[in-house]
Amino acid sequence: MRISEYNVRPDLPQELKALEEIAYNLWWCWNDDALELFRSINPASWEKSRHNPIAVIGSLTREGYEKLMKDPVFMSRLEAVHKQFTEYMTLPRWFELEHAKKVEEKMHVAYFSAEYGIHESVKLYSGGLGVLSGDHCKSASDVGIPFSAIGLLYRNGYFHQYLNSDGWQQEYYPYNEFYNMPMRRALNPEGQEVCVEVMVENRTVKVNVWRMAVGKIELILLDTDVEGNSKEDRQITGQLYGGDSNMRLKQEIILGIAGYRAIRAMGRKATVYHINEGHPSFVNLERIRNYVSEGMEFRTAVEVVRKSTIFTTHTPVPAGFDIFGTDQVKKYLGPLFENCVLNINQLMGFGRVNPFDESEGFAMAVCGIKLSTYRNGVSRLHGEVSRKMFKNIWPNALENSIPVGHVTNGVHLPTFISEEFKTIYNRYIGENWYYKPYDFTIWSKAENIPDAALFKAKQRQREKLIAFARKHLKSQILQRGGTSGELVKADEVLNPDHLTIGFARRFATYKRGYLLFMDEQRLHQILNNADRPVQIIIAGKAHPKDNGGKEIIKKIFHICRKPMFRDKVVFIEDYDIEVAKYLAQGVDIWLNTPKRPMEASGTSGMKIAANGGLNLSILDGWWDEGYNGENGWAIGAGEEYEKETYQDHVESMELYDKLENEIIPLFYTRDRAGVPREWTRMMKQAIKTCAAFFNTSRMVMNYTDQYYVPVHELNSAFRANKHEEAKEYVLWKDSIIQSWDNVQFVDTKVEADDLKMESGVIFSAAVRTDAIQPENLSVCAIVEFDGASGEFKDPEFVELEFKNVENGVYSYSTKTTLKKAGKMKVAFAVLPRHKFIKERFELNQIKWA
Ligand SMILES: *Cc1c(COP(=O)(O)O)cnc(C)c1O
């Protein structure tokens, strides 16, 4: 029997077209009125579909439409939401106002990521990277950046989790019904559906292209589950991070190469390429291949690609990067590059630290780094860690000048702040927290929120979280085939008035989910103190192949079942964006215990702070930067340990101490009105200091000013006059590198009347070269005051001015004032200088005096 399937699309009457328009733009997922509008249509199908407006609309019959149209309350709500939506889509935003010229010049950012976490109903994410990419998109829309995001349309997304009766994680995969997702086929400028092709191994794979609207920006999704592709190829976009290394390689070919072809076919002309993590790095190779096939000289093409790309690493460990073997790359990518000037060895070089070392595989992150102008980590500490991690790519650079910066992550506040808190903020801070979340002066008004109102709002959120947890628990019990007695008990777990600690994250070993449970007896005393009871809610998945992570979950599961912890410690299965929101909004304390410096940034703690929760965390990732002594608690002081068991012991002890001696007493010390004044003071500190900075509006604006705009400008300069300047730059670079050996210092001097703070000092140097013009050299005095003798840690570069030339010797000097007292270390160095060199050590050339 052959069964054919057809999708019958709903055909809404004219009066309800606005509903469809809103449903097909994910803007609804951060607008509470829109969410309520869809829920009100049919609460049961809303729940059943995991809050999917398209499914809710699709479940309506003609009578259903009639009923809505006859409901004046519904219709006026629809009108109001549609008005908000139209305003959102048309009002000019920060970028359009501040960078009007860039809008005119048609700056356009193409953002590549392997996953996007936008809403629980759109299952194209696994965890932190996905949620961050989703938030990046939402904020790019909020601040008005011309922006397209590119990703894969996974048929099965990432796994759902449940635990068997022994607490062992079980996995099953969702099936994404594309017609129930808020997207449509992408169209080319002629209005035809876009389908691109790409060679994988020796086959041509067809890739359908879809478009999802996220406010003002678009998310472009690639799908190989296309008729005509082999069964195997149809599964390339099956599972997120599923399959073996060959599968990963194929997925990355689709993401980078088909992704680039898709945006071109759609008529998008990106001027800035933002690559997130190594996964999309093949886009660089495809762009080079494309330029070369259009007749551009190879090295010019490389430079053009480099000068339009930024690369962001989200991992602190090299083990997190994909590395493919030479044979593997040859097999899968070889045919694609067959008829191209680019040979496979040149290709391999981009993915190796040492291009000529045949034993090195192709590292996607190295390819991202080598073919970009700017690179960054995702918190201040991660910037440092990344400079260490990648220092062998620039063996001549000082460690702190390794050209990898940082932009600290954030969260999309309208997505993660509860309705209750939004109302409070609107009332006491003003609606500008929403429109200008990056403005510190607005957030400082958090002081005006009355303590009682703030605590009451939190109380309400905690109640909601507990109700949610109980409901969740009941469905978990049902799924496991539990008894009716268990079901009744589930309604009695947790207490809405008790201090609630949340802990939810991927159960990777370095996150140390077990730390809180190191001393069960002591934990028992803490939780079951009759006057000051405490409870814990836990959630998180382990990677399907990570048995260590699964063991931790199992251990916690069994602890939850012990009589002394029952009702007090609850594990919520299947951590996703919805669970994350309830936790972020409802818990009082958010616990995070990574092994420093393994947490690149982490963002869940930011969601907590924006909802008035307090962080209790190791000083790692964002908290190393966010903690100020008054807005939460630190475990440790940023130490790193050699011995793991010792570290676990010390840090778990401190964790218990902080809870017993500081946190719990503070929460339960109430005034006569029942308000914990000192606690609410800290809540306000957290709101004021964290929400104002750790949000994605600020983050996206940082990316724009630090990287997107400068890269757009570089790219414009390069593209003008048929890439004339790019060609010149390549020649210039060659000549500099060729004559660099002959650059040498003849003399250097530090002259001062007296070496006192505030007094003047003259740095001068004489340099000899055979062929380089003086303006092409950057001669610097490198000055540092603090730190150990004999090395530079984070020195200042004082640029000397060119004065004159005599007998082929260039003189440079400059006068500055000494800003500090103490031991001053000075060295002189010369580096290449060019208007297109944006980072001092970009060319990895330096000569020391
Ligand atoms: C915010 C969020 C994360 C990020 O969590 P961290 O532990 O801070 O990295 C992961 N998963 C989901 C579902 C989230 O909402």
Automatic annotation (TrEMBL):
Q: Which reaction does it catalyse?
A: [(1->4)-alpha-D-glucosyl](n) + phosphate = [(1->4)-alpha-D-glucosyl](n-1) + alpha-D-glucose 1-phosphate
Family in the record: Belongs to the glycogen phosphorylase family.
Q: Name one GO biological process term.
A: carbohydrate metabolic process
User: Which SUPFAM superfamilies does the protein's record reference?
Assistant: UDP-Glycosyltransferase/glycogen phosphorylase
State the UniProt keywords alphabetically: Allosteric enzyme, Pyridoxal phosphate
**Species in which this protein is naturally found:** Geovibrio thiophilus
In what residue span(s) does the DUF3417 domain sit? Answer: 12-121
- Indicate what this protein is called per its UniProt record: Alpha-glucan family phosphorylase
Residues with N6-(pyridoxal phosphate)lysine modification: 607
Enumerate the GO terms in the molecular function aspect.
glycogen phosphorylase activity; pyridoxal phosphate binding
Report any Pfam family annotated for this entry. Answer: Phosphorylase
- InterPro entries (alphabetical): Agluc_phsphrylas, Glyco_trans_35, Glycogen/Maltodextrin_Phosph, Glycogen_phosphorylase_DUF3417
